[in-house]
Design a protein that fits this description.
Blueprint lengths: L2 E6 L3 H14 L2 E7 L2 H10 L4 E5 L7 H7 L5 E6 L5 H6 L4 E4 L4 H13 L19 E6 L2 E6 L3 E7 L2 E6 L3 E5 L2 H8 L4 E5 L2 E4 L5 E3 L2 E4 L2 E4 L2 H10 L4
Helix pairs in contact: 2-3
Amino acid sequence: MKTTCIIVEDIQIAADFLRKFCEKSELIEVKGHFLNAEDALEFLDENKVDLIFLDIEMPGASGFELLDRLTYSPRIVLTTSKTEYAFDAFQYNVNDYLKKPFTYKRFMEAIQKIQAATPGQAIPSGAAPPSADMEFLFIKAEDKLIKIKKDDILFLESMRDYVKFVTAGKSYITYSTLKNMEEKLIGQNFLKVHRSYIVNITKIEDIRGNTIYVQGSQIPVGKAHKDELVGRLNIL
């Protein structure tokens, strides 16, 4: 099954370039091209796609403003000629960042990364396997990008417009939402157990009633998440 996408780009030649690469790959189906964020959002209110190729600087709302207004979480590949947006790209947890002009090879690297991280989608023949850096996240905290090994994360806690990453040795606070973090972490070892918490289930020490205990921290289990938690644990 092909990955569906839209292209949000105000320069027609750049959009045509992207469409050509999508067609050449035979992996991406372009559902539409939009010259501004408002028209793209109107389309996305009625239609869902797997992936958005998103320019940042456009007339009207910027690409980042579009991300703020999305009601669901497709994969995002930012396309821009300016490198100064890289930090903001990490903050929004986009899947890849393509600096214009980019080659077909670099385009395919982005697509392979997305498909490798998406359950149920095949990696194209000849594609490289997920690299070792997939075991890490980079988060913007303390005025720098900090690399955190996923296995070191005990849990994440929502703090309104911020998220706290808790490891055994230190906690880090980044400007983001738990919803954004779900896209990066929910999988084999991570599970949302409460509207305010995602936990690394391999770090759970014990569960008493509706409370998870992880290295001295107590994490509540929401009613809506309890059945999934029980299903994911190896209970004998």
